[in-house]
Give the backbone structure.
Amino acid sequence: MYRQLRVGVVIPAFNETRAIAKTVATIPEFVDEVIVVDDCSSDDTSDRARVNPDVVVVRHAENRGVGAAIATGYRHALEAGLDVAVVMGGDGQMDPGDMPALLDPIAAGHADYVKGNRFLHPDVWREMPPARIVGNVILSAATRVTSGYKHVFDSQCGYTAIHRDALERIDLGAVWTRYGYPNDLLARLHAAGVRVADVAVRPIYGEHWKSGINFGTAFHPLPYVLLRSWGSRLVAESLRRS
């Protein structure tokens, strides 16, 4: 428990045999439940995630995408009665020491959804690959328009925390299931009137880091995802005002 909040950590994972055990083992002790969602890995990700008997491992029967894996984890968090669900990647690119910074605005009642912003951390220019910086800046600028949150940046950072009240205000089944998920989610949160805050988190890119993102899986569908989320937000907000 953290500041009277029951906290769960949702870890979407796909072929993360190299890093998943360390990721789970380094989660802070104040976390009440760890939920690993194995998105039909072809390796032993599920087995390696079970570093202790308390870890909950949910495995998809088929690969459904990172967004769908997170939605599965969110549903489990709601069913378990947790107050806040934190999302961490299974690849070791998120510092567990940053978790209190994500939780504090929710505990203080200032935000319902808190996302990491690596551009607020001084190491970003040294650690993040140049191509990722360029892509992130472009997508963040576009997402500011489509989501309606003019103050948020680093839209592709997946290190987030959300209160159960915010989760219950959106349709998890309608959120985009693959790359582009965070851009779509932000638009849906804005339509639901959810308060969002950015906090600084440490960028981590080890020497063995290799991105699973390529043009076909990410950048090709993103214009469609952004336009889709923009349109659905405008319609939802119009209906809410009428």
